[in-house]
Each structure stands twice: as structure tokens, then as C-alpha cells.
Amino acid sequence: MDEIERLELRIEELRERIARSRRLRLVGLASAVVGPALIVAFILGLVDYTPARVLVAFALAIGGMVLMGSSRSSTEELERDLKQVEAERMAAIDALELVQVGEGKG
User: Where do the domains of the chain lie?
Assistant: First the structure.
């Protein structure tokens, strides 16, 4: 497998990992919203209060914030890696010294 193919496979892998990281960030955001909303629902009496539900609400709120932060930093790191690999691919393509074929004289 030549260098350009290897780099293109790496680029595809990084793009998939970035997409997965962004999905995890959305899950974290949803958890960070649902947890506090559940706490407000306890306060307003919309949901029956139990200690287990309160623990779940706090776990959702805290876990969601942690997941969002972790996914954001992972996504940023993956995006930096992607830019670097894309630059390496462009350098490998430029190094091929391709000759441009012009139109025929006829």
C-alpha cells in the first residue's frame, strides 16, 4: 500500500472518530440538561421524590458535564490530527511531480 492510500485510510478513520466524539458530546449535553430538569421537577412536585431518583438526577447532571468536556477536548485533538494528516497527504501528492496533460493539437 502506498503512502497516499495509507494517509487516506487514516483520514477516513479520523473522520469517523470525530463523528463518534461529536455524538458523545450530544449525549453529554442531553444528560447535562435532563439531570437539572429532573431536579427542578422534584422541586415543583411534578415527579415523585425518591433518594434514588435524586442520585440519578445528580449523576446525569455531573456525568453529562464531564462527558461534554471530555468529548470536546477529544474532538479538538482529533481535528488537529486530521489537519496534520491531510497536510501530509497533500505533501505526498505534491511530491509525485505529476505532469499535467494538455489538450491535443488537433
Answer: 3-93
